[in-house]
Amino acid sequence: MLRSLYRLGSASLKRFISHPLFQRVIRNTGYLFSAQTIAAGLSMGQGILTARLLGVEGAGLVGIITQFSSNIYRLISFRMSELVVSFVGEFSAKEQDAQAAAVFKAAAFIELIGSIVAYGLVVLLSPLAARLFAHNPDIAPLFALYGVYVLASLFSESAIGLLQYFNRFGVIAYATIGQSILTILIITAAFVRGGDLRDVVIAYLVGKVVWGLFISLAGLWQAHKVWGRGWWRAPLSLLAPRRAELVRFGISTNLSGTIKLISRDSEMLWLAYFSTPLQVGYYKIAKAIMNILMTPVTPLISTTYREVAREVANRHWENVRYLLRSGTILAAAWTLPASLGLVLFGPWIVGLYGPDFLPTSYINILILLVGVIAVNIFYWNQLVLLPLGLPDYPAKAHFVFAIGKVIGTILLVPVMGANGMAILLSAYLFLTTAVLVWKTLRELQRVSIEPAQA
């Protein structure tokens, strides 16, 4: 009996692994996974050293300072990487190299102006940020200091888009790993000599500056390699027929990013405003540990999307369902055991950052697991809706739940602190995932029966 079950399981696993679609997803995911795993491990090391050096409140202040500048930059950014991938890809496919070069030139120029504006805002708002979020006006210079990375980012978003389109993922991966190594070396030196908050902020700043400059220069190198020495002379007038479309694309992606910025990526600032840096420290460590759970699944998003978009275009609905089913099984095979591991060994992992983080950070982890398990297993929740012609549906869904999350933040966080923020994020992730999965399955059912109805 056991032998029969073993043979049946082995045969099913063999068929599962041997499917060409699944093999492509795994092959493309492996490279990204390796780089992100190394970077995540180094990032965890940075967090442990920072927490041990500065304590709970100091770790919270680092999170507030770094997130403030990052959010100002992202607010001004038009997510140029997506625009470059879409339009450089389209023009390159048509062998219109001059137009493709003009797209990158325009994106880089606009982003460079945006970086300068964003840095000006960081410097201008630093005293207000120190008072509202850090509750300490004396550290306003640290907000302005870390903001230098915004200026040094130059046109890194546009460069990333160009590198991605021309399959230079290795360059991005090496830059990310190099940044992490440099940062942890500087933090280690600060830890050994008993540094302070300023030393840690400088460590993160140096890593970000080196990354931004390297990626921007790599983008210029790639443009020179593909389009020749005079690529930058491509006239922007070539884009005049598509100007309205380019502007609309940039604005729509910026709005979508802004919704996520407010609802998901500004939590430490919301928490700092309605609570204290101490609560931010607890929550920051909990989210850092949750990245252990999410890192292996994150690369599946881009690799699965590539295959899903192709199969949707060809109306191969069975293949689409297979990709979603196999991706779900693969994500669950990691997420469920890893989640159990966090439940059992979470106190020990939190203890690595320091005993002062217990038990609050561990309670945050238990709360966050509900939403993270859902979004991890169904990581594809909005991938199919994009090629099906419903790119605005995820944005609308996130917007509706973002309103609820902001209201909940105002009501819960002043009373419950980090635990309240964890409850809100977990509920937000679970509900948005449930709605988008339901919509995806419903749309797949509808398009599958359209030929029969016709």
Structure overview:
- With 454 residues, the protein is mainly alpha-helical.
- The chain has two domains: 32-252, no CATH class; 264-448, no CATH class.
- Helices cover 84% and strands 0% of the residues.
- The protein contains 17 helices and no strands.
- The chain has helices at 2-18, 20-76, 80-93, 97-132, 140-146, 148-152, 156-165, 169-192, 197-227, 243-263, 267-274, 277-294, 298-313, 317-353, 360-377, 392-416, 418-453.
- The longest helix is centred in the first third of the chain and has 57 residues, at 20-76.
- It is globular and about 60 Å long.
- The chain starts with a helix and ends with a helix.
Q: Which residues sit in consecutive blocks of at least 5 with pLDDT less than 50?
A: none
- Put simply, the count of helices is 17
- Mean pLDDT equals 84
Oligomer: single chain
Overall strand count: 0
Rg over C-alpha atoms, rounded to the nearest angstrom:
23 Å
Strand fraction equals under 5%
Give the arrangement of secondary structure elements:
Elements: H1 2-18, H2 20-76, H3 80-93, H4 97-132, H5 140-146, H6 148-152, H7 156-165, H8 169-192, H9 197-227, H10 243-263, H11 267-274, H12 277-294, H13 298-313, H14 317-353, H15 360-377, H16 392-416, H17 418-453
Helix pairs in contact: 2-4, 2-5, 2-8, 2-9, 2-10, 2-12, 2-13, 2-14, 3-4, 3-7, 3-10, 4-5, 4-7, 7-9, 8-9, 10-16, 11-12, 12-14, 12-15, 12-17, 13-14, 14-15, 15-17, 16-17
Give a brief description.
The chain has 454 residues and is mainly alpha-helical.
